[in-house]
Amino acid sequence: MVITATSKTAALGGIWSSIGLTLFEAWSEQATFGSVSASNLASLTSAALFLFLPVFFLVIGQNTGALSRSWVLDADARAEYWIVVKRMFVWFVSAGMSWLVVSAFA
Asked: Which residues lie closer than 8 Å to 65 by C-beta, 6 or more apart?
């Protein structure tokens, strides 16, 4: 199953990231971990679930030529690069706006 990254999925990914990471941060301040390794594992898991995976699947996309090594030489890849940059901007703005709402309640 290939997920097509669009501006709408980027906005949803930004909302998912900000809500998840904000709530994880609030939870981790209250949680008592048995060891530093458990704390690091929880942080790494939350970063994967709420940051790395949504950015890869919902913002950058799986079938993009913008991240190839020779994107500068190909006109289509250059055009795709700017589309990805626009989706990154949408992700960042939606994450920031939803963070303002979530942080008021967390």
From this structure: 71, 74, 76, 77, 80
The rounded distance, in Å, linking the Cα atoms of 18 and 44 is: 16
Q: What are the DSSP calls for 22-38, one per residue?
A: HHHHHHHHH---SSHHH
pLDDT digits (tens, 9 = 90+) for 68-104: 677 777 787 778 888 889 999 999 999 999 999 988 8
Question: Running DSSP on this structure, what letter comes out for residue 4?
Answer: P
86: part of which helix (H) or strand (E)? helix 75-105
What pTM value is reported for the model?
0.85
Q: Are the CB atoms for 86 and 14 separated by under 8 Å?
A: no
Cβ-proximal residues to 98 (8 Å cutoff; 6+ apart), any chain = 14, 15, 18, 19
Q: Which amino acid is at 90?
A: V
